[in-house]
Amino acid sequence: MVKDNNHLMLIAGYDIAELDLLSSSIIVLNNELASAQRELLKANRKLQQNEIKLTKLTMTDPLTNIANRRYFDDTYNKEYLRAKRYANKGEGFCLALADIDNFKQVNDLYGHDSGDAVIQHFAQIMSESIRLTDFVARVGGEEFMLILPKTDLEGAQILLNRVRSRFKQSRYKGVEQVITASFGLTEFTPNISAEELLKNVDIALYKAKGSGRDKIVIN
Q1: What pLDDT score does 1 carry?
Q2: How far is Cα of residue 171 from the mean position of the Cα atoms in its chain?
Q3: CA 203 to CA 194: how far, in whole Å?
Q4: Catalytic member of 142, 176, 187, 195
Q5: Handedness of CA 130, 98, 57, 171 (dihedral sign)
Q6: 105 or 25: which carries more pLDDT confidence?
Q7: CA separation, residue 24 to residues 28, 30, 69, 173, 209 (Å)
């Protein structure tokens, strides 16, 4: 019986040792799993950050660091639908198209570096002049679009005149001539399509350019 008991005790001791080893192995595996999960979480966060950066790159004009044409199209469509939905509450918006006057001449006379500096400064002036709810995008070489939500024509004119005046007063290294900008302006109405609104603001700018430049024309 004693031997049997001893034998049993040896078996019990052996089993406890096995359990200790198994427990240690599980702890090691759990630690490795936790470490792998942390690395996976870090990798996922980095992937999300890269996706955000990539999205920003596809929506941002590299020269001015403001929105590009693609971003404008997306924002404009959303704003138009919003204004259409709440038209009975009078929550419309104004749309403006800005163009730097005689810009080709600036490039030809003073070089593309000077031209780029002018574009960058114009974008900066508009970015600093608008509200957080407003939107500005570079949609062409020297053309910019502004979306001004919940703004009437009078308020939009005040803003654009402020931009126009400040831009006209700006001076650039190596550039002797005064550089101005023209603006077309139109206002959302419930009975007009998104395409017609864009056409109206384009016509307004055309009239501003054709009647002496350095002015705001409403259509």
Answers
A1: 45
A2: 28
A3: 15
A4: 142
A5: negative
A6: 105
A7: 6, 10, 60, 72, 81
Amino acid at 83: A
One-letter amino acid identity for 157?
A: Q
Q: Is-catalytic flag, 142? A: yes
In the predicted model, is pLDDT for residue 93 greater than 70? Answer: yes
CA–CA dist 179, 118 (Å, integer):
8
Per the listing, tokens 């101005």 go with 180
Q: Which two tokens stand for residue 92?
A: 């419309």
Tell me if residue 178 falls in helix, strand or coil: coil
Model pTM score: 0.77
Predicted confidence (pLDDT) per residue in 12-46, tens digit = 555 777 777 788 888 888 888 888 888 888 877 87
pLDDT tens by residue, 173-191: 999 999 999 999 999 999 9
**Listed residue (209, 19, 18, 191) closest to 88, CA to CA:** 191
- Burial (CB < 10 A; 0-12, 13-18, 19+), residue 145, is buried
How many Cβ atoms sit within 10 Å of the Cβ of residue 69?
Answer: 15
